[in-house]
Design goal:
Double-stranded beta-helix, 26% strand, 22% helix, four-stranded antiparallel β-sheet, single chain, alpha+beta, 266 residues, six-stranded antiparallel β-sheet
């Protein structure tokens, strides 16, 4: 499991794959299936980011994306208190799944630094497998409740009813989460939200990315967040579906799941 006290460079170096070498796509696919996280560098421009993204995914356009399918992430100075738009402010972001309020969130997320913040702005990543293990070993009632079907509603009026942990027919588990004003919770899980938030933060790792550096993650396994920042921070994001097979979610701790009550990530 990953811990927040790990040095930033250790995390980046450990998970880095050189995207310029032959066979990089195969190595990326294997690492995503194994750990769900890859770090990359050498993507110095928006053109580089888009070219790399299209090597590994079918880029999926959405509400916030530009005409090429990428999303420009920077402080617009208009969205500080607007629910669902905190990514376009300079404030902190809670751990979340990208596009959690849609029936089928994109499987992959690529985020690359174009310009670093003057201060702050670190990327904060949490392995959902670690959170699941933490809750089921230390707070089992919380883990059990958070896997109950339709105990959360993510998004606005056109959002989606789901649950934090979805158990698939093969007993692998996916995570789906948001903790902002567009998350509504069943009374079944309300008592456990503080434990969930604490576990998500406890297992965070920090990445302070330089221009051209980024990360690629499995959006069904990893949660991502951000610290507040100052300055003209600029990132590019791509969301999409992998061009290679990937099993759903992650392998949970032994005895932490039973036969699923849902066959889809509802």
């Amino acid at each position: 499991m990953r811990r927040v006290h790990q040095p930033h460079t250790d995390v980046f170096v450990r998970d880095r794959i050189d995207v310029r070498v032959p066979g990089a796509e195969e190595r990326i696919a294997g690492q995503l299936r194994d750990s769900g996280l890859v770090t990359v560098d050498g993507l110095a421009s928006r053109t580089d980011v888009l070219a790399f993204a299209t090597r590994i995914m079918n880029v999926v356009p959405h509400r916030d994306s530009d005409s090429d399918g990428l999303t420009t992430i920077r402080d617009s100075r208009r969205n500080t208190h607007r629910a669902g738009f905190a990514g376009f402010s300079n404030g902190p972001l809670d751990p979340h799944t990208e596009r959690s309020g849609t029936p089928n969130p994109p499987r992959l997320m690529l985020l690359v630094c174009g310009q670093a913040a003057a201060t702050g702005g670190e990327c904060l990543l949490t392995d959902g497998q670690a959170v699941h293990f933490d809750l089921f070993t230390g707070h089992r009632p919380a883990g059990t409740a958070l896997a109950q079907p339709r105990t959360a509603f993510f998004g606005a009026g056109d959002g989606h009813a789901s649950q934090v942990f979805t158990v698939h027919p093969d007993l692998r588990v996916s995570v789906r989460l948001r903790l902002d004003g567009l998350a509504r919770w069943s009374p079944i899980v309300q008592p456990y939200l503080a434990q969930l938030r604490a576990a998500a933060v406890r297992h965070q790792v920090r990445l302070r990315l330089a221009p051209g550096q980024g990360y690629l993650l499995d959006n069904e396994r990893w949660l991502h967040a951000r610290s507040a920042f100052t300055g003209d921070r600029l990132f590019w994001r791509a969301l999409g579906l992998p061009l290679f097979p990937m099993p759903r979610g992650f392998v949970p701790a032994r005895d932490s799941v039973s036969a699923p009550m849902l066959s889809e990530a509802g």
